[in-house]
Amino acid sequence: MEQYVIIMWKPSIRKAGHMEFRKADETEMHEVSQLLAGAFKDYPLFEIIEKNNHKRYRLIRALQHLNTKVFLKKHTCLVAVEDNEILAAALVKNLQNKNNDMPDYIKIGGLPLLFKGLLPKTLQFLKLANSSEVNIEDSKRFDWYVDSFAVSHKTQGKGVGSRLLKECVFPYIAKNDGGIVSLVTNTGINRKFYMKNGFEEFKEENLKLKNESVKNWSYRMHIESTLN
To answer: Which InterPro entries match (predicted)?
Structure first.
């Protein structure tokens, strides 16, 4: 029988000191997508898709803009804010809602990506990413999925990411019936971060593109509902 880490969190999203943890709104889409693009610019998964630094960052910006827009419209974006600046963000999806996001991705970003010449690289990225993520999203074993999680470069190592998880993401999931939350990462430093914050690593795999591959790790955690 599989064992899970069970954690109970207070349900309120609150201010702690002068840092605020809350939902983002659509007016903050650009700021959130820029934060995510900056955090993922050296991500191994993107490096094997596009070698040129300038082209890779252009691709990442377009993808994060599209993804953030869809999440603000259909799912949840949680942020850490200090002095009106977003320092960290998490894109969170409730898998029990069974929303099909693909029509929105096509409607919002399909043609712009095509006109920018980014569609082929985008399809390569989706093929790689979906090879692991689709197993999570389609599995009945998981209730929530953290699609993206990022902290601004200037605040990395200062505990902002851990606080966003413990004071916002986990309470949000807990007060929305809890369940098993999962996520994936491609970097060793992220592995340490998620395990430090209570996640259990349950799968390691190689994502392959032509003659190259990148390591991918999957994590899970059970968060107790505060509705019971």
So the answer is: Acyl_CoA_acyltransferase (IPR016181), GNAT_dom (IPR000182), Trichothecene_AcTrans (IPR052523)
Identify the CA nearest to 177 among candidates 4, 13, 11. Answer: 11
pTM of the predicted structure, to 2 decimals? 0.82
Beta strand 144-151 with 179-185 is parallel
Q: Mind listing the pLDDT tens digit for each residue in 149-161?
A: 999 998 989 999 9
Q: How far apart are CA 94 and CA 41, in angstroms?
A: 26
Helix axes 119-138, 53-74, angle to 10 degrees: 50
Contact 85, 77 (CB under 8 A): no
To the nearest 10 degrees (0 to 180), the angle between helices 53-74 and 29-40 is 140
* Residue 106 DSSP code: I
Phi, psi of 178 (to 5 degrees): 60, -160
Q: Distance of CA 129 to CAs 116, 126, 134, Å?
A: 21, 5, 8
Residue 218, strand partner residues: 184, 203
Cα Rg, the chain, nearest whole Å? 17
The string of pLDDT tens digits covering residues 97-136 is: 876 655 555 555 554 554 455 444 454 555 545 555 545 5
Query: Please, are residues 15 and 21 in contact by the beta-carbon 8 Å criterion?
Result: yes
The structure tokens listed for 111 are 């043609």
Give CA separation, 111 vs 34, 121, 188, in Å.
21, 14, 35
pLDDT at residue number 94: 94
Catalogue all structural domains in the chain, each as residue range(s) with its CATH number. 20-223 (3.40.630.30)
Dig out the tokens for 82 from the structure: 């200090």
